[in-house]
Amino acid sequence: MCLRFPTAVAAAAALVLVAGSAARAETVDVALALAADVSRSIDDGEFQLQRQGYARAVTDPRVLDAIKAGVHGAVALCFIEWAGPGQQAVVAKWEVIRDGETAADFAATLLKMPRSFAGRTAIGDGIGFAMAQLAASGVDAPRKVIDVSGDGTNNAGRPVTEARDDAVKAGLTINGLAIINDRPIGFLYQHTQPPGGLPNYYRDNVIGGENAFLLVVQNFSTFADAMVNKLLTEIASAATP
Predict the structure, then answer these.
(1) Which residue in 40, 33, 42 sits closest to 92, CA to CA?
(2) What is the pTM of this model?
(3) 209 Cβ neighbours under 8 A, 6+ residues apart
(4) Distances (CA, A) of 3 to 6, 8, 9, 10, 106
(5) pLDDT of residue 25
(6) Dihedrals phi, psi of 221, to nearest 5 degrees
(7) Contact 52/97 with Cβ under 8 angstroms?
(8) Distance (Å, whole) CA 225 – CA 56
(9) Are 208 and 171 in contact (CB under 8 A)?
(10) For residues 205 and 198, what is the distance between their CA atoms, to the nearest angstrom?
(11) Would you give the DSSP letter of residue 220?
């Protein structure tokens, strides 16, 4: 029996490894880590518009049609919120979206979960956290993207350009959604309205990697429409060799 026990253990371990490999083998067209800014420059009303915008975009029929038209007919999504250093959280875990039902499940999670933080703006730390989530996504994706949305400059934590460069070196793409906060708190004006404008700040410091792009949202009330366009572009980019 003593001789057989290690063999049995080895066989069981092999089965676990095979099962784990099978679970990780699901292939999608793109893995998207949606990383949303919930720092203190975003008030509760703006937060609600942002969270609802993500939920509406994920379930939009145009987005679902684009997903189904992909090579694998599926994308993997994870939703992250970030603010200051040490303030990063997964709001919705990785889920493979293939149809309206899976998209609705993901959107329902977004709508029911409370706000995670309301601190400073550590974009670099948010990018690093998103990188870790992509590494643990459990899916096989030819294209992996960090989708950063925010209304201000990096003002805490790791330098954002350092985090961006690390992500690009790892083969990831960072796309941006710069939200123009047209009614910022007085002492945060320079943070949300930097010299040259927030879009230029995001272009110079945040986005990077293959086919990286930036969209600009003029206010929080148009966030959902902008997010739909962003997802459509990202899904289309995944289908382009």
Answers:
(1) 33
(2) 0.87
(3) 167, 168, 171, 172, 173, 174
(4) 6, 9, 11, 12, 49
(5) 54
(6) -70, -20
(7) no
(8) 9
(9) no
(10) 10
(11) G
* Per-residue pLDDT tens listing for the chain (241 residues): 444 434 443 444 444 343 444 344 599 999 999 999 999 999 899 899 999 999 999 999 999 999 999 999 999 999 999 999 999 999 999 999 999 999 999 999 999 999 999 999 999 999 999 999 999 999 999 999 999 999 999 999 999 999 999 999 999 999 999 999 877 667 787 899 899 999 999 999 999 999 999 999 988 889 999 999 999 999 987 765 4
Residue type, 62: R
> Residue 156 is encoded by which pair of tokens?
């805490």
Exposed / middle / buried, residue 213 (Cβ in 10 Å: 0-12, 13-18, 19+): middle
DSSP-assigned states of every residue in 103-169: HHHHHHHHHHSPP-------HHHHHHHHHHHHHT--SB-S-EEEEEEESS---SSS-HHHHHHHHHH
Largest pairwise CA distance in the chain: 76
How far is Cα 16 from Cα 12, in angstroms, rounded to an integer?
6
Length of the chain as a residue count: 241
